[in-house]
Amino acid sequence: MRHTISVLVENKPGVLARVSGLFASRGFNIESLAVGETEDPTVSRMTIVSSGEDATIEQIAKQLNKLVDVIKVNDLTAERFVERELFLVRVAAEGHARAELIQLVDVFRAKIVDVAAKSVTVELTGATEKIEAFVDLMRQFGIKEMVRTGKVALIRAPREGKSQ
Amino acid sequence: MKPPAAKPAKPKRDDGHVRSGARVIVDALEELGVDIVFGYPGGSIIKLYDELTSSHIKVILSGDERCAGHAAEGYARATGKVGVMLCTSGPGATNLVTPLADARMDSTPVVAISGQVASAVIGRDAFQEAPMQAATFAITKHNYLVTKAGDLGRVVREAFHIASTGRPGPVLVDVAKDAQAAMVDVRETSFEFKLRGYNPVRKLHMNQIDRAMELIGDAKRPLLYVGQGVVLADAWKELRKFVEITGIPVTETLLAKGAFPASHKLWVGTLGMHGAAFANYAIHEADVVVVLGARFDDRVTGNPAAFATQAKWIQVDIDPSEINKNVTVQVPVAADVGEALAEMVKRAKPGHHDGWHKRIDELKRKFPYHYRPGTGEIKPQYFLERLMEAMGGKGIVTTGVGQHQMWTLQYCRFDEPRRYITSGGAGTMGFGLPAAVGAQFGRPNELVVDVDGDGSFEMNINELRTVRDNNLPIKIAIMNNRMLGMVGQWQRKFFKGNYSSTQFNEDIPNFVAGVQALYGVPGRRIAKRDEVKPAIDEMIGARGPFLLDVVIPKDEDVYPMIPAGATIHDIMLGEEQGHTPPV
User: Fold this and answer.
1) Alpha helix segments (H runs only) across B259-369
2) What is the complex's ipTM, to 2 decimals?
3) CATH architecture of the domain covering B206-357
4) What does pTM read for this prediction?
């Protein structure tokens, strides 16, 4: 099963290498990893997507917790959380295809961020499933290049008047 | 008239509050109670070596950096204190990689301080530069690269804290050359830890202890599987109390030797590939097993899916990642094993395990350690039995890795912990002699014997200079079969006796002549059984170091043996004994 793990780490050199090295040396897989500063500039948040059996994910969390530079590990999978990913794609767009493409961009609330004679570049943010659906649709036009940031996620605040 | 040239500012002197980074390191070591460091100097650590001469800390020049590392490990294992090793940058530091990996596998508290090239040239492939932080991420508990003298006081103290708390382990502090030389006003630096992500203390959950005691109370065939965690937590006295009350028998791992007295009637030997057959059968028949500070190493379990399949598991470990790692347990207790045992002692009730005790006695009778006595040649098992008699349960044994190590596992028995020092998880050949050096410095009044293999001993023979320099009365007994015995045994068993790269010349190395000539260490070679007792007496009676080169048969196998990844049903007991495993 796919898990989204949110990891708060010290914002200092070498920490990314420690975390990615741990995954490599213990044979855990990483589907995506996104990292950036938090509201506290001394802390970074890593959002790691990994898949494996429950026991493997449990080991990942425990091993991450053992790293001295890891402050907190939270497997969001069982929680309510918001997730987003940013996607950029340069796709062939000539003649009729261009109009069709623009329609799809509207439907997905994506944005055209660059236009060239034979292609356009589209930006899309959203949950992983939405991005994947959009990638599939873009294939028919001919994807020249694409890039995804990997997922970032935050836990949802508890609802007003309801206790967690 | 020219104004007089401004007097150059007086250089800040290394006294009072303004000190060099190197002095700040030495201050920290002194404050932390370090009385000895093992190392090998070089260009990037020269400033620290310079400062050390004005400290009371004893500085030992090791055979090389690897020896320094294993000596620090031996010191830590013998004393329970943090071992310290020093080295220079580049190849000096990479030589420390093996001891660091060894210490991580065996949870040994050591701190390595390595010199690094000057911060201005880090990353530019400077002379003797190696990226030690990157190289040791996965084989240290934590590591640092320090480029500012002002950080050193805090970092060295943090390093000792991390190495020695929770599950102990190695910490590397890589210090740029300029950070050692830079002057810093210690009043302006803070030693306050910045370790918000490090929480070694685990709260003991009483409901888990309740569940554990309930399971133990219902058990018909309970067994304790004791690991080194009991020694590291200094919980061996609590363990004895718990066993005295409950009457639950005890098996141990290689590293836990002595955590429970081998002379006790409820001692059930050592588990694992070359452990006691009776221990492996006992755990296979147990219905509840309490795992105390042990980690289900594959050399203990064989195939983990088929290991002790009747058992319900209670596992106590301070490292939560060890719980459910290789074997899924019913009652996890992520806590200090000493605290957990103290609580378990409070709740312990006498058990009624007469039938189970009888069964274990029967297993011990049916499947004892055994060997063919031979016809006058020296069997290693016979030698070790005589050595143990001569040592009288006291002293310290260190080992290399291989067949001789497994024979010590079987025949060296102790009633107290920290008397048997061996490389367990990493299986590091060459460990024995430098570990003996560390152990002898740590416990100068003990008889320290390095029981080694001919292959292992030669790997770090250079440490004999340290032995000689310091007049350490270390005894070395080489189980010399003129081959790499354990690999040879596997080649006999699994590769049709194809001895690929495992046979030495019969007479080379000539250990006795060699160590006498190079290091002035006296020795003797023996090959007949009736020479054993007088030779052991001569060795132990020698005032200084002594080497006994014990010629043993080339083809002696270590039995019993459960092949790697196999199960108790695949145990090889030794062909001549004629036992078949009970169904």
Assistant:
1) 277-285, 298-301, 337-347, 354-366
2) 0.90
3) 3-Layer(aba) Sandwich (3.40)
4) 0.94
